[in-house]
Amino acid sequence: MILQALNEYYERMQDAHPGELAEFGFERKAIPVIIELTETGEIHQIRTNTDNNTGTIYVVPKAIKKTSGVAANLLWDNAEYALGLMREDGKPERVAKQHQAFIDRINQIDLEDIGVQAVKLFLGKLDCQVLRKRTDFDVDFFQKNPNVSFKINKDKQLVCERKPVREAIKLISESGSSDARQTCLVTGQKMVSERLHPPIKGVWGAQSSGANIVSFNLEAFTSFKKKQGENSPIGSESAFRYTESLNYLLRKGSPQRIQLGDTSTVFWSEKGDTEIENAFAQVMSLPEKTSKKDDPNKNVRKVKSALEAFRRGSRVSEEDNQRFYVLGLAPNASRISVRFWKVSTIREISNNIRQHYEDICIAHPPQEVPEIPLPRLLSHLCLEYKLSNLPPNLSGEVARSIMDNQPYPYTLLAAAVRRNKAEQRVSFPRAAIIKAFLNRQIRQSQSSLTELTMALDLNNTDTSYVLGRWFAALEKIQEESHPGLNATIKDRYYGAISSSPVNVFSILDRLKNHHLAKLEKSHRVNKEKLLGEIVGKLPSRLPSQFSLPEQSSFAIGYYHQRQDFFIPKKQSGDQSSS
Fold first, then answer.
1. Rounded distance, CA 437 to CA 431, Å?
2. From residue 450, how far is each of 180, 440, 447, 500 by CA, in Å?
3. How far apart are CA 531 and CA 527, in angstroms?
4. Which of 4, 209, 427, 446 is the most buried (most CB within 10 A)?
5. How confident is the model at residue 316 (pLDDT cuts 50, 70, 90)?
6. CB 232 within 8 A of CB 355
7. Domain residue ranges in the chain
8. Where does residue 288 rank: exposed (0-12), middle (13-18), buried (19+ CB within 10 A)?
């Protein structure tokens, strides 16, 4: 299903945006060094751009899958192959074989094209020692060994992009080998199977040279003595199409690619260019960095606009039944593992993402924004807020829960509670995570319990929630009785009271009398009334231990009460009953 969807994406892109993806037998490649030749094979000039081995993207013949042997690409390759220019640590005998293989590959093309003939003439009289002394090359050229190709000085395109050459290469690619044809698992047609599939690049953490989804590199993985890709017969053209589509989606700067922890995630809709396709990345990835000169609300508006798109997507429209695909890939040695594969409709994905944002909606400080992208949400579960410290599978599991509208993984709640204790505070994103987790659990189990509200709930009598409110009230009393205090009871007792309340309750109850005595009478009376209202909801005997869900409820009670202290009195009354 994955390969079929990618194959369909290739066909859709070829119809809607011709030339955006390479044709069968070709690929898009950065070529940093271009040697411009005259029609007689003389060097007109050499254009170089070898910084980080980048260059202009050209459509070139598909690269040969190289191993330890010598195999040359057609009309382009690295400097050792194309020009015979050896690096300082290179091996002369091997470089000579590589350069000869490059020449032999070009000589196999029986084509009367002035571009091909010019390259043949150039290679026929090439003197590597003279070429090495030219000043056209960058200082680090010989160490970087960049990709090199050729063009006629009168042309704007490379020799390999000239129409006669493209047609000849396409015929060679389509003819394939004389091997017996098999039924392609992607198209169902009889085709020559691709033994070694083209590499997939751009998956974070995978080999820089590329890795494979379909791969058989040991005899233990094969059957009936079939070689490599013949065990999972996929036609050469189908293999090219799905890898070309995936490489395009994974390319640097792709608007259809996001990084969720160690999972490189791509997404696309059946017909493309939909509002949801453009909005998905805004709510599932970190906002782009902005400079001081940029509008500080730019990213906030983008996420709000994206959420509005998902709200519109939940209504009846022509796009409703379009399929929407989400594919999560992660590195796995020399292969790529599929972390998740989601096939949905635009209506379903819109409803599910909208539901996620409704679930995480909670009262927050005015400087915070409720539209939290998923990576920022997850970063509050990590040491030093670095996503690299997140458990490797968690981001993918949470993303799948969002897209399927299913309960979040239990490890998400455990991580939020653990970070609350480690930091001795409940941050807005962690409070949002805990509220969303508990409400989905209540909804899924069809429990008689009432879902947590967005703001303070005066009617909630759950012991852990009420005790969280009580702890927040004690902290507020301490802050008012000792202005400018660097550390409060939260910094010393939060972890203990949230997990073992009976051991700390009596200590804090005694401390509160000392703090109340320092307040003015009117303030003291108000705080005593608040404490009386809260304590009146507590049982006569507190539990010795709180379970993980109870610790989570404690965190929400504490957070709700803290936020309520900063709401003007009239607004407080309105929100408390929500």
1. 10
2. 65, 11, 8, 24
3. 6
4. 427
5. very low
6. no
7. 32-173, 177-249, 257-452, 457-578
8. exposed
Pair 26, 62: CB distance under 8 Å: yes
Amino acid identity at 350? S
DSSP assigned state of 268: E
Mutual orientation of helices 92-107 and 114-124 as an angle, nearest 10°? 150
Contacts of 92 (CB under 8 A, 6+ apart): 86
Residue, of 564 and 573, whose pLDDT is higher: 564
Sign of CA pseudo-dihedral 101, 194, 5, 304: negative
- Distance (Å, whole) CA 297 – CA 288: 12
Largest CA distance in the chain: 102
Q: How far apart are CA 37 and CA 119, in angstroms?
A: 8
Alpha-carbon gap, residue 373 to 297, rounded angstroms: 14
Q: Which residues are bridge partners to 324 per DSSP?
A: 269, 344
Q: How many angstroms separate the Cα of 56 from the Cα of each of 13, 32, 62, 378?
A: 22, 7, 17, 37
Q: 182: which strand partners?
A: 191
Retrieve residue 72's tokens: 């040359």
Phi, then psi, of 384 in degrees rounded to 5: 60, 20
Query: Angle 236-249/2-16 helices, nearest 10 degrees?
Result: 80
Whole-Å CA distances, 563 to 369, 454, 474, 494, 573: 14, 11, 14, 17, 13
In angstroms, the CA 187 to CA 320 distance is 27
- φ, ψ for residue 331 (rounded to 5)? -70, 150
Q: What 3-state class would DSSP assign to 221?
A: helix
Q: How do residues 212-268 score in pLDDT, each as one tens digit?
A: 888 887 777 777 777 777 788 888 889 999 999 999 999 988 888 988 878 899 999
**Sign of the alpha-carbon dihedral angle for 312, 341, 393, 212:** negative
Q: How far apart are CA 138 and CA 51, in angstroms?
A: 9
Instruction: Kindly provide the residue ranges of all beta strands, DSSP E only, lying in 32-128, ordered along the sequence.
Output: 33-37, 43-48, 56-61, 76-78
Is residue 276 within 8 Å of 350, Cβ to Cβ?
yes
Q: For the chain, what is the mean pLDDT?
A: 85
Q: Give residue 244's identity as a one-letter amino acid code.
A: E
The HSE-up count of residue 357 (CA atoms within 13 Å, CB side) is: 23
Of 379, 428, 348, 410, whose CA–CA distance to 259 is shortest? 379
Among the listed residues 74, 66, 65, 61, the one whose alpha carbon sits nearest the alpha carbon of residue 28:
61
3-class SS at 70?
Answer: coil
